[in-house]
Specification:
The protein starts with a strand and ends with a helix. By secondary structure, the protein is α/β, with parallel strands linked by helices. The protein has 12 helices and 11 strands. The strands form 3 sheets. A 7-stranded parallel beta sheet has the order 3-2-1-4-5-6-10, sandwiched between helices. The protein is 38% helix and 15% strand. The chain has helices at residues 13-23, 56-66, 79-88, 123-126, 134-150, 172-182, 201-214, 231-242, 253-256, 279-282, 291-304, 316-327; strands at 3-7, 27-32, 46-50, 70-73, 94-98, 155-159, 162-164, 185-189, 198-200, 220-222, 247-251. Residues 4-224 form the NAD-dependent epimerase/dehydratase domain. InterPro entries: Epimerase_deHydtase, NAD(P)-bd_dom_sf. This is NAD-dependent epimerase/dehydratase family protein. Belongs to the NAD(P)-dependent epimerase/dehydratase family.
Length: 329
């Protein structure tokens, strides 16, 4: 039976990755610092190795104790993290680095793995930990993977865009879920046609396994919903999944100013479309969950959670002022 080591694995994408590999017949080990509740504490099929992924000795200890066939690296946020990992795990059948759609440095539609330029990364950015350098650091991690593959390491990258679904601690989607479940009118910034590619978390988990099993060393693979929906359409998909009716009320910059709001104050708003070509991953046999089904699962788990997403976007009082202005037109 093959063994998978998930670096990270207790919170969002990593949690689903553990489930994906376990259900596919792998022995699974989770390597992390143990700072978050372990959802697999009672699962005999999942072991836990405690350590700091930035400590080479800890990584080496995990490699020796688990002897993994596959390594999935969820929490490599700086290029140096990837450099150490591809060295420590140089002999595994597959090392899969979780990169990001943010690694792309050109605004093209769609963004393709082998065509679209990546973000450059300066020495200063490489050691930074701010959101501003996130894409650059992920891009440099991709370049480390490519270089390692040239040296014979079976290393690959997965590039998802914004990920949503059960157990999403970022609460970006929870903001919109809460608006739909609590109100019959939902303010959507712009004209509602904003398009930011998203990926359902269980699909990202299955993509990690597919890339580990079928991917080619040195290659990167985009992952994302096969059917894209605009921000306005997403609100309607949520309403359908929740079994409720809402009115999508679009508001431009002038109308939002009535509530001292700006377009960028709303989560998942992006002025220019962000679209990834997922054909390369699809060619490996990967499939995504229909958006309606993915959102139904997301709504169900949201209702059972204590997340409300209110801190991720405007407060309702400000939105009510915007709605008041729009109602006078």
């Amino acid at each position: 039976m093959p063994t998978a080591l998930v670096i990270g694995g207790s919170r969002f994408i990593g949690r689903h990755a553990v489930t994906e590999f376990r259900d596919a017949g792998y022995d699974v080990a989770v390597f992390n610092r143990g700072r978050h509740e372990n959802p697999f504490a009672e699962d005999d099929a999942v072991s836990h190795v405690e350590g700091d992924r930035k400590d080479r000795t800890d990584l080496r200890t995990a490699q020796l104790s688990v002897d993994p066939d596959v390594v999935v690296d969820m929490v490599a946020y700086q290029p140096a993290d990837v450099e150490v990992a591809v060295d420590v795990f140089a002999d595994v059948d597959a090392y899969v680095y979780v990169s990001s759609g943010s690694a792309y440095g050109a605004e093209t539609i769609p963004k393709r793995e082998d065509e679209t330029a990546l973000e450059p990364c300066s020495a200063e950015q490489a050691t930074d930990d701010s959101y501003a350098s996130y894409g650059a650091r992920k891009a440099e991690g991709d370049r480390v993977v490519s270089s390692a593959a040239e040296d014979g390491v079976n290393a690959m990258s997965l590039r998802p865009p914004v990920v949503y679904g059960p157990h999403d601690y970022t609460e970006r989607m929870d903001y919109w879920l809460g608006r739909v479940l609590e109100h019959d009118r939902v303010v959507v910034p712009g004209d509602g046609t904003n398009l930011w590619h998203r990926a359902y978390v269980e699909d990202v988990a299955s993509a990690l396994r597919v890339v580990a099993e079928e991917g080619a060393p040195g290659e990167a693979y985009n992952a994302g919903d096969r059917r894209l929906v605009t921000l306005g359409e997403m609100v309607e998909v949520i309403a359908d999944a929740a079994g409720t009716d809402v009115e999508v009320v679009t508001a431009g910059a002038r109308e939002l100013a009535a509530g001292d709001l700006a377009l960028g104050d709303f989560p998942l708003y992006r002025e220019y479309p962000h679209v990834l070509d997922t054909g390369k991953l699809h060619a490996l046999g990967w499939e995504s969950t229909p958006v309606e089904e993915a959102m139904a699962r997301t709504v169900e788990e949201h209702r059972e959670s204590d997340r409300d997403g209110r801190e991720e976007g405007p407060d309702r009082e400000a939105e009510e002022r915007v709605l008041g202005v729009l109602d006078t037109f």
